[in-house]
TrEMBL record, chain B:
This is Phosphonate ABC transporter, permease protein PhnE. The chain crosses the membrane at residues 28-48, 91-115, 136-159, 195-215, 222-238, 250-268. It is found in: Cell membrane. It comes from Bradyrhizobium zhengyangense. It holds the Pfam family BPD_transp_1.
Amino acid sequence: MDPALFLDGPVFSMTVAVSILPEQQLAALNAAYSKALARKRLRLLAGFAVFVAALIVASIGAEVNLRTFFTYFGNFISYFDRILTLDSGQRVWTNFGEWFWGLRKWLKLLGETLLISYVGTLIGAVLAFLLNFFSAENTSPAPWLRFTVRRLLEFARTVPGIVFALIFVMAFGLGPVAGVLAIAIHSTGALGKQFSEIVENADMKPVEGIRSTGASWISCMRFAILPQVSAGYASYALLRFEINVREASVMGFVGAGGIGQELIVAIRKFYYSDVSAILVTIIVTVFLIDITTGWVRAHLFGKEARN
Amino acid sequence: MSKPQDVDTAELRARYPDVFNRPASARLATPSMLVAALAIFVFGLVDLDFSPSRFITGLSQLGWISMMMMPPDPGSSLPLYLQALGETLSIALLGTTLAALLALPVSLLAARNIVPHIVRFPVRRFLDSIRGVDTLIWALVWINVVGLGPFAGVLAIAVSDFGAFGKLFSEAIEGADQRQVEGIRASGGSALHEIRFGLLPQVLPVIAGQVLYFIESNTRSATIIGIVGAGGIGLQLAEQIRVLEWQKVSFLILMILVAVAAIDFISGKLRFAIIGRRAVA
């Protein structure tokens, strides 16, 4: 509401107008108002009832057991107590050397995780780059091509990366190759959509200018669209790299390389202090990557592109 | 025409020396970055064991697997799969709701316009570290606590979304218009009145939109937490992949795709109904 409206004329005239309303008219208005309010409340209540019913059905479906929850909730708290205790019974931070006894091995695996996400993101970005002009509304050469590419990208980003990883582990064998390809495919789907959205927002006048000189479709893309969109591409690719670092840290759960393998073994075999040490190294790495890519983005595209 | 551009260039060169003689550092910046990116890429390929022969055998294997996947066929386990899908949807719904309920009060403690910096800072860092841990890891932790099954999945999604919601909600609260809060204060309302009547009406639609969006994305997360044993359709999927029942695998993937598309559709409709078409476009 505009505050200026509040300060002059209308307020005064409104109070006058309200005070001289005849009794009947006021009653009618009041009745209409409370009726409207009652209808709104009823709708809200009905929505709420449907929601609660859905929750109840869901809690039966998900085998929610509050008794288990309350009996074992202490375990959840004490789990953190346990992962912060060394085998000797001391707190982990009293003896960093023993807490991070495997740091060399973990750092190597973390390096592998970062490489997996880097190579995967790059492959995904290149594929997305090759495909996105076909799926954007304004640059696609043919509707059937656009439809096909869009469905392909949708498929690539809807199937979770780790499901691809599970299948690729069967095809390519255990190891980082499966992880890289899984991340590459998922990134192709996600980036392909974001890239084509940038292209759809691009100015089409340069394209017309270049087409009028008799240039081919490829030249149009290269000289009219690409200069407008390349900064946006790089920004989204960096963001995707950040996301992929997190994703790659769990690829090892299904045998697709990286630090995840070590983490799942530590959790399953109850190597408590190792769990916390690996988690700390992962969280610190993720923070560092976020900060670095934020810095790179700020330097490449100026301050406003940071978010 | 007698090459007018030659004359122009010479004059322009004299007038704008900076444009024509860019320092080597500026000219080399982009190519050297590309070379560095390519070098890391090649190093990565070598370090991660990408050999051409492995890649080719893998691809042919993958082609064989895709052939085996056709046509998708659930065999006799369709009821089991439908039940698992229901479990997955339940996990997503319950986990997201629980996370939203827990995150709402905490997000007030992380909003700049509600609490002083000294409270906000630790709460924010706490939420950041929760978000730094993947949902799958939380699932493993909860399995240790409440045992295998969908309940662990609900709790895992609740915890990891709690971190995300805390951040998003507090940002919504920080973006709210202060004037309505001031109005409540001016008419003699207490701090709680300010939140209830000044803030919540502004932020609830935004929050509802975000929660719906998360139910969508959690349908995807809930499909995978089964892989580590936390219930839902992921459990079936991982099992069928392990025993190489590819027709069932493709059927399960198809079910996931359909379910995600259906949830997308429903929550999109609901979001339009709650916050209007423009706010989400």
